Amino acid sequence: MARPTKQGLDYFPLDVGFLQNVKVRRIMRACGIQSIPVLISLLANTYRDEGYFLRWDNDMPFLIADELGVSEGAVTAVVDKATQVGFFNANMYEKYGVLTSDGIQKRFFEATARRTSVRYDARFLLINVSDHKNVVNVYKNSINDDDNPQSKVKESKVKESSSSGDDGLKDAVNAYRKNIYPMPGEMDLEKLKSMVDDFGSDIVIKAIDRAVARNKRSLAYIRGILNHWQADGYDEEGTKAKEKDPLAEQYKKIPF
Length: 256
Fold this sequence. Notes:
Layout (H helix, E strand, L loop, with lengths): L21 H10 L3 H14 L5 E2 L4 H9 L3 H14 L4 H7 L1 E2 L2 H10 L6 E3 L14 E3 L5 E2 L7 E2 L1 H9 L5 H11 L6 H14 L1 H13 L5 H14 L15 H6 L3
Parallel strand pairs: 3-4
Antiparallel strand pairs: 1-2, 5-6
């Protein structure tokens, strides 16, 4: 199997006037000096992974907090203030749960101008990339969600799973898109497929519903529910959040 083409950057420019930027100064005034390493970590994660946006899911505050030795609450406060002052685009954050900005996107697409091809999702773009001849909208040929035409999954992946006999993957993916995140990435899609292969689509969808009821919207938690059911059996109770979550400790130990 061919190695996937690298999407993110190995390094990114940091303006010498970063600390004098009025948006940064407002964030620092509201959230303290620790907001600076948080902002730099957010930018590093953005440029390293997708390159032009960062998926802000339930795991990211923990990952950044653990990396920097600060609290998850401090990380979340910085993100909230950063979107409020326009450091990150508020509409993209509220609508899609992603962190991005015009400047981030301009720098990324300029930095990758010499690559053969660069992936992008048109829904997340804040700039015009028509001048970049190497950009490819990887979701333009995707199937649409009946309730949300903008939420997409690669059609080729769905067809591939159907041809292999996994007809339930599409239902599990749709449940994930509606309840967890509107656009599963390659890794998320592979994990969902693995869950469906191991447990069946109906049980995976029930696990997604259970995770949503407990406000634990991540694949790691969904997998933890499935493992719990496999060991102890499925229980109808739990569609409502419990005062004490029996999976809380197990979730902390899940490595993915």
